[in-house]
Amino acid sequence: MKIEGLLIANKLSDDILTLNLGGTTIIEHTIRNLMKKVAKTVVLSCSEIVWKIASSYYNIEVVDSLSAGLLKINSDKIVIVPANYPLIKEDSYDLLLKQEGDLVIPTFNGIKGYPKIVTINPFTLNKIAEIPINDEGITTEVNSIADYYQIYLGRGAQYE
Q: At what angle do helices 26-35 and 48-55 cross, to 10 degrees?
């Protein structure tokens, strides 16, 4: 089964995505975590900084629209994750990729998170599976400096 990733960085602040989290940027943490699990990653972004960072990785294509991104994907499953979710654990990806369903959505304490796994079925979307996961990272997004400091001071030490 071929699995590809769609990393969404559009509408996110370059200032936030390029903050240091344990020696690398937030977007690089997210890219590296995703790349361990997929054959290819498509990054959706209009930012020159994001293009430069993402393009430095092997097997990544950067596009500026969702329609262009979807045209680049040729797989059985798509892993969708926003670029500002750097704390998703590797085990969470593994667990979600093993699940049955046309759309797999992780939850933490009842809150829906990322990554979302979409099985490509051109005819229908039959089964939506919500999977409880013990990983706060699936709901932890970095949208502001306050979010960043909460993560960096609270859990960021593990990334140093």
A: 40
- Going 119 to 124 to 130 to 131, the CA torsion angle's sign is negative
Torsion 10-14-20-24 (CA) sign: positive
Q: Is 103 exposed, middle or buried (0-12, 13-18, 19+ CB in 10 A)?
A: middle
SS3 content of the chain, % helix, strand, coil (to 5): 35, 25, 40
What span, in angstroms and rounded, lies between the C-alpha atoms of 12 and 7? Answer: 12
pLDDT digits (tens, 9 = 90+) for 25-68: 999 999 999 999 999 999 988 888 898 888 888 788 888 888 88
Closest C-alpha to 60, from 49, 73, 47: 73
